[in-house]
Amino acid sequence: MSRQHEVEVLELARGGLVIYPTETFYALGCLATMHQAVEKIISAKGRPADKPLPLIVSDWEMAERFLRLTKAEEELARKFWPGPLSIVAEVDPRVSPLAKDHTGRSAVRMSPHVIAARLCHEAGAPLVSSSANRSGLPPVCRPDELDSELVRDSGALVIASTPWPSGGLPSTLVKIVGAESVRILRAGAISAREIIAAGVEVLS
Asked: The YrdC-like domain covers which part of the protein (predicted)?
C-alpha cells in the first residue's frame, strides 16, 4: 500500500469522510459501519435522514461478509457486478441504520472503478457511496467541479487521482420482485433492455 493509500484508509478508519471517484460520478463516502461518520455525510449533503444512503462493496468476498443476498439477488448481481447496477438487498447489522431502510436493506453495488474498488477493499468494509453534491444539485465527474463549500463543511479528503468518473447516467437501481423479475426504481447506466437480455423480466 502506498503512503497516499495509507492516508486515505486511515482517514476512513478514524471516522473521516473521503470524496472519491466511481464509475459514474464522484462520491462522498465513509465506512458504512461507522454511524457517526454516516451522520456527517447526511449533515454535509443536507439529505433527509429517512432516505438511506447507497453503498458499494469491493469484491465478492466482501459481499459475502456484509450482504444477505437472496438467490435471485445474487444471480442478478453475478450478471452485472462489478458494474453500475445497484440492487436493494439486506445488509449486515454492522452497517449504520442511516445507510439502510427500516427493513435493514440498502441499495448496493460493486464498483468497477479501480480507485473506488481499491479504497473499499483496503478499508475492509462497505463504503457509503452518495454523490458528492448537496442534496438536489447535480453530481460531478471532475475534482475541480466539486462544491468547495461541501468539501469544506464535510472536511472530506478529496482523491483527485485519475481515472476520473465517466459521467453520464447514475447507476440503475432495481429491486427483485420475483424469482426472475425486477422493478427498476431508478433508470440509469444499465438499461432495461440489457437486463432483459440477461434473462430477467422487467416489470413496470
From this structure: 1-190
Instruction: Answer yes or no: is pLDDT of 50 > 90.
Output: no
DSSP 125-192: S-EE-EESS-TTSPP-SSGGGS-HHHHHHHTPEE--PSSPP--SS--EEEEEEETTEEEEEE--SS-H
Residues 6+ apart with CB under 8 A from 50: none
Global pTM value: 0.94
The answer to whether 44 and 130 are in contact (CB under 8 A) is no
| Cell 484508509 sits on residue | 9
SS3 content of the chain, % helix, strand, coil (to 5): 35, 25, 45
Q: State the residue for C-alpha cell 435522514.
A: 49
CB atoms < 10 A from the CB of 161, how many?
13
Query: pLDDT tens-digit profile of 79-114?
Result: 999 999 999 999 999 999 999 999 999 999 999 999
How many residues are recorded in the chain? 204
**Residue 81's pLDDT is what?**
98
